[in-house]
Amino acid sequence: MSYPFSGSARPAPGSPSSMPTPPTGWPIGSYGTYEEAQRAVDHLAGSDFPVREVTIVGVDLMLVERVTGKLTWGKVLAGGAASGAWIGLLIGLVMSIASPQGTGALSSMLAGLGGGILIGVGFAAAGYAAMRGRRDFSSASQLVAGRYDVLAQPRHAEHGRNLLAHLAMRPQASP
């Protein structure tokens, strides 16, 4: 007999944990939003369920890119100047701390700031010019799931399903 999502939930002590591993356990609940899945796990935790045996899995993943505006040379150069200014200010601050006493901390910071702005503008302009008008918009990307399944290890699955069934019968509190 095979079981869904079988495998090892957590790496053995001393084994590398950086390798991706598929989730394990049996489904005990399925929810349309991450908040609902979180609420379910909170309910399990409040019912003294061993939540260390629980995994929330996003299923049917989608990359959603929301367009936030049109890009212009002015916006690109201003963004490059702003990011370069932060880096340059940080470098100027380090230079002013590392320099001998009395050699002009303010001038080191201003030099770093100016250099950072020039480099930031240069890199931003080069990147935007290389796109040749193929991507004249700004956007924000987000990874979302179509549903969120709550899994529990097989030895706790039936108990978890029963607890979540009681949660489903309770009215949800308003935010």
TrEMBL record:
Any single Pfam family the record assigns to this protein: YflT
Keywords: Membrane, Transmembrane, Transmembrane helix
Transmembrane segments: 76-98, 110-131
Annotated InterPro entries: GSP17M-like_dom
Record domain General stress protein 17M-like: where: 28-101
Region span, Disordered: 1-28
Superkingdom of the organism of origin: Bacteria
Compositionally biased intervals (Low complexity): 1-18
Name by which UniProt lists this protein: General stress protein 17M-like domain-containing protein
Organism: Saccharopolyspora gregorii
